[in-house]
User: What shape does this take?
Amino acid sequence: MTTAAKPLLSVRNLVTRFGRGRGAVTAVDDVSFDVGVGETVAVVGESGSGKSVTALSILRLIPSPPGRIESGEILFEGRDLTKLSEREIMEIRGDRIAMIFQEPMSSLNPVLTVGLQVAEPINVHRRKPWDVALGAAKQLLGRVRMSDTESRVRAYPHQFSGGMRQRAMIAMALACEPRLIIADEPTTALDVTVQAQILDLLKDLAQGSRCSLILITHDLGVVARYADRVVVMYAGRVVEQAPARELYANPRHPYTRGLMASVPRLDGDTSKRLVPIDGQPPNLARLPTGCAFAPRCRQATDLCHRERPALAEIGPQHQTACWLETPAHV
Assistant: This one.
């Protein structure tokens, strides 16, 4: 995406909280990023970093209570999704924006056939009769490279393998030809071979339909192969974002560098020991003063422990939130 191009999705200063009072948890804290037309953006971070809550916030799927979108904008095709009525956002879900959830076995209805579930968005959003929608469902199952679609469309989720269930979820997401697909850890619990097949399929389908893709993952190998741009999250905040090639060539935040140092690489010194990130992610209900990563950072200064750095531009389309990267420290 060029800097002049108008983004399909623009998230600005998004804050999502759970609970109230002293026990309140800020799961998404002042998050901002863009997704361009036809672009694949990976959102990366450890468990609890706010990746999935950010995705659920975009579609207004945060359970309320206890959760709520407290402030910020989610601009999709020029409309602020936070300002829409429940009926208006329901018209967008599954139609203009589709989501592939983390665990297909718990996302698919066990008492309905796969064909009915893939056909439902076409029936609801396109107002097509069920026989037409079921015919389209067969074509969609074939499009995601599932064999024997005639029998598969009448099968139930428990009769499918994990990889087949994930293909069914992708078919459902593609049913109404959305402009944006959000894939939340789409290869969880799948073996490595099936993971590659699913991710290749998802990327090919997104490119073929000029559909944008938000890929939520903790796997940096996935990011390197499939993403155009990367958003790194820690403790509910964006700590770095950049084009994928730039991020891998020149990671600037200590957390990003720590993630990369803890993953084995085949293009480097294979005898080199992996370096884990010390400590544990912080409790979001009791975040430390200053930078949330400072207690785990080997380069942290007194300033890092006192004040929280803002996300700042350090290069073309490259931003980071680190005091060590400010002009006074560089």
